[in-house]
Specification:
Blueprint lengths: L5 E3 L14 E3 H13 L26 H18 L3 E10 L5 E10 L4 E10 L4
Antiparallel strand pairs: 1-2, 3-4, 4-5
């Protein structure tokens, strides 16, 4: 099967046979792209301050359904805007037991592959 989606592996891992930088294919490429989107801060994309999520700003709010809804709204907008290869089917946001962050479960469909996949992101404060 020929890969539909192919992205550069940003860990810059060397392929053992060819000596080139390894690639990510299809669902792994999409997961890496979503992970990068979840970690975007303002001005990480030069000259476009609108494409960011700044999820860290919610870490010091009191965990509530309202905060979870604001995070969900921001993530749906971000994925629709920056990752057109997927369609979000469900987002579940749960506060961690110690109120130090959130567990974000994103279910999505990869449009051209008709594949449903899941990505989990831990958004947590660092107390170090």
């Amino acid at each position: 099967m020929v890969p539909h989606y192919r992205d550069l592996d940003l860990t810059l891992t060397i392929h053992p046979l060819t000596g080139d930088i390894s690639d990510k294919f299809d669902d792994n490429a999409i997961k890496r792209s979503l992970r990068n989107l979840f970690q975007l801060n303002a001005w990480d994309i030069p000259f476009d301050q609108n494409k960011h999520n700044s999820l860290k700003e919610y870490l010091f709010d009191i965990p509530s359904p309202i905060t979870a809804a604001m995070i969900e709204k921001k993530l749906i907008w971000l994925v629709r805007t920056c990752e057109p290869r997927v369609t979000v089917t469900n987002i579940n946001i749960e506060p961690l037991l110690d109120n130090s962050g959130y567990i974000i479960n994103l279910s999505y469909e990869i449009n051209d592959l008709n594949l449903i996949d899941n990505y989990t992101h831990f958004l947590k404060r660092n107390f170090e």
